[in-house]
Specification:
- The complex is a heterodimer of chains A (about 300) and B (about 350).
- Chain A has about 300 residues and is an alpha+beta fold.
- Chain A contains 6 helices and 10 strands.
- The relative contact order of chain A is 0.06.
- The mean pLDDT of chain A is about 85.
- With about 350 residues, chain B is an alpha+beta fold.
- In chain B, the strands form 3 sheets. In chain B, strands 6, 7, 8 and 9 form a 4-stranded antiparallel β-sheet that branches. A 3-stranded antiparallel β-sheet of chain B has the order 3-2-5, covered by helices on one side. In chain B, strands 1-4 form a two-stranded antiparallel sheet.
- Classes of the chains: A alpha+beta (about 300), B alpha+beta (about 350).
- Chains A and B meet through helix 1, strand 6, strand 8, strand 9 and helix 5 of A and strand 3, strand 7, helix 4, helix 6 and helix 7 of B.
- Strand 10 of chain A pairs antiparallel with strand 11 of chain B.
């Protein structure tokens, strides 16, 4: 190509680009372009891609993001039906359904969040006044109705959000469930008291079980020893009976001898180291020491034994 | 300043000539320069999609391709027009991403050096996070959500802040799980179980909203009562351990006493048996001795009697403390014994 053709091409391209940016605009996926002519809305474009308009200052475009967004509400305190104070933070999933109305009523995302926050909070206050706290927090699964409460809040905001702000609220849920700071102290005290009760219960149960074990053991010990005593007494009794039988047999066999021996035993039993025995000299064995004529043999030192 | 004549014109021309020459050269080079810029610009549209991601191409804002197969660009070379015609959006897939839930945990105030007594007696829900349990107790917890992107188109184009949405939904699910069980059950539960319960609550809601995210798992990093209550909870554990120990001590006592008692019992019986056998044996022996003596006495009664008396007398003299002899001619004298065994 020669230089002139090239220069022409370059010039035309530049012109196209400059003009194009004035009459063409792009619409992103999930966005809507609002085309206004001299401030008045003439058309909305939802289709993504390249579109045409009259150049500025005749027509202007404003882009509205229609993607799904999440809003986190402020902490707000409210009363349940059973007069319990709760602090709720909820989330709301929303998107722009009617771009024109949205732009007109709200303007931008920050404004939308503000208005939506107010709407959701008011709805929560109203709905929660119809439920007890046990609908949200309960040990009895049958009483829990969190889904129903959330559904009620959603129903309460959908219509208004749509009509007033062109917003479609898709889902609402409770992100935080708490109590006012003043109430928490009381809850803490209650929790501490509960813990103390558990600790005491453990200790008491331990004492009770331990003393039961000990008492049981003592009983077993006493029983074993008593049984043994009984057995021992029985054995001793049998032996004594046997010994007595033997002695009785002996006595029956020779009562004279038996009696004689018993008397001798008694005699021996009576004599101890405190005993003084006094005998006549003509008695055995001292009679060995006297002469036949009765006179004493010299007995030096025989007196005191 | 007076206008000089032909001399000033010549001077100007001298000054301007290099510029003109430069301009001329530039004009000659322009085609090459423009061509180079155009090439660079076109080249900026060429890129590659990495292994663990996919790409979406937006042409003038519109997603290119009909149907997912064409719309989602797989790893490899990617040819697109450069900006501002085309825009490439990359989405990580096949990768597990992590999101930390801190909304139910205590705030970032550094409580490391604070003694338990000087802790605030209350928690402000706007400052510190916590959750209510089914029995109206308070727990603080921190969790980690592992997720992956299942629908890249929804993730990239239909939502403005998908992670924030996931965080809100996951935290709401966690609040619900904790509000459905009493505090003891929660503290005793395995964390895997609680994490699974949260995931089971979140995923259906995610699916219903078409957010294109899949929760791979929820992990409870921490779950415990607030610091203000730590001691009270510890006390319960201490009491439980002490109670167990008391019972152990009683069992040890039992284990010691029972065998001992049984041993004593057996010994008592054994002693009685031995003693009894001995006394019966003695009796039998005495009986036999008596029998022999009796037989002997039947043969020679006086001899036996004399012998027995002598033996007895000897034993009496042996045993007596003192013996006194008196003359035989004292009439009517009787043997008297005074004193006795000490």
């Amino acid at each position: 190509m020669n230089r002139d053709t090239f220069r022409l091409g370059l010039g035309l391209t530049t012109l196209v680009v400059i003009l194009g940016s004035a009459v063409a605009f792009t619409v992103r996926e999930e966005h809507t372009a609002l085309v206004t002519r001299f401030g008045e809305l003439v058309r909305t474009v939802d289709e993504p891609g390249l579109h045409w308009k009259l150049p500025w200052p005749v027509e202007r475009t404003q882009s509205v993001d229609r993607r799904t967004r999440v809003l986190e509400t402020r902490h707000s305190e409210m009363l349940t039906r059973d007069k319990k104070n709760v602090v709720l933070v909820s989330f709301a999933l929303w998107r722009v359904a009617d771009a024109a109305r949205f732009a007109q009523a709200v303007g931008d995302a920050a404004g939308a969040e503000d208005k939506l926050d107010g709407l959701v909070t008011d709805a929560k206050i109203g709905v929660l006044g119809r439920y007890d706290l046990s609908a949200l927090v309960s040990t009895d699964a049958a009483l829990l109705q969190a889904e129903a409460v959330e559904a009620d809040v959603l129903a309460a905001v959908r219509a208004t959000a749509s009509e007033r702000y062109g917003i479609e609220v898709i889902d609402v849920g409770f992100q935080r469930l708490s109590l006012p700071a003043d109430n928490i102290e009381a809850v803490f005290d209650q929790m501490r008291a509960e813990r103390r009760k558990f600790a005491d219960a453990y200790r008491a149960a331990g004492e009770r079980d331990a003393s039961a074990v000990r008492a049981d053991a003592d009983l077993e010990v006493a029983r074993a020893l008593a049984e043994a005593e009984e057995e021992a007494a029985r054995i001793r009794g049998e032996a004594e009976a046997e010994a007595a039988r033997i002695y009785a047999e002996a006595e029956a066999a020779d009562p004279e001898l038996f009696d004689f021996l018993r008397r001798l035993e008694t005699l021996e039993a009576m004599v101890g180291d405190q005993t003084t025995v006094i005998l006549q000299t003509d008695q055995s064995p001292f009679d060995l020491l006297t002469n036949d004529d009765g006179s004493d043999v010299r007995t030096v030192g025989v007196d005191d034994q | 300043m007076s206008l000089k004549g032909p001399d000033s014109a010549a001077e100007l021309e001298t000054l301007a000539r290099p510029l003109v020459e430069l301009g001329g050269r530039l004009v000659r080079w322009t085609p090459w320069l423009v061509g180079l810029l155009a090439a660079v610009w076109l080249g900026s549209g060429v890129s590659s999609v990495a292994q663990n991601e996919v790409a979406l191409v937006l042409r003038f804002g519109r997603l290119v391709g009909e149907g997912e197969a064409q719309q989602i660009r797989r790893p490899g070379l990617l040819l697109a027009w450069p900006a501002p015609i085309d825009r490439v959006v990359r989405v990580p897939v096949e990768r597990v991403l992590e999101l930390e839930l801190v909304g139910l945990d205590r705030g970032e105030t550094d409580l490391a050096g604070v003694s338990l007594e000087s802790l605030p007696t209350t928690i402000d829900p706007t400052v510190d996070g916590y959750a209510l349990t089914a029995d109206r107790n308070v727990l603080q917890t921190r969790a980690l959500v592992r997720y992956s992107i299942a629908d890249p188109i929804a993730y990239a184009l239909r939502e403005q802040a998908p992670e924030q949405t996931l965080e809100a939904l996951a935290q709401a699910a966690l609040v619900r799980v904790l509000a459905a069980a009493p505090v003891d059950e929660l503290l005793r539960s395995r964390r895997e179980t609680l994490g699974r319960q949260v995931r089971e609550r979140v995923q259906p809601r995610l699916d219903a909203l078409g957010l294109g995210l899949r929760v791979e798992g929820v992990e409870l990093i921490r779950i415990d009562p607030p610091l203000q209550l730590q001691r009270a909870f510890d006390e319960v554990e201490i009491a439980r351990i002490e109670a167990a120990r008391t019972v152990q001590q009683a069992l040890a006592y039992r284990a010691l006493e029972l065998p001992r008692a049984e041993a004593d019992a057996r010994r008592a019986v054994a002693d009685a048996a031995i003693g009894s056998r001995e006394s019966v044996a003695r009796a039998r022996a005495a009986g036999q001795t008596f029998g022999a003596l009796s037989a002997e006495a039947a043969r020679a009664p006086e001899v036996v009697e004399q012998r027995l008396l002598e033996e007895a007398r000897a034993r009496v003299f042996e045993a007596a403390g003192s013996t006194k002899w008196v003359p035989a001619d004292l009439e009517n004298f009787r043997i008297t014994i005074s004193g006795g065994k000490r």
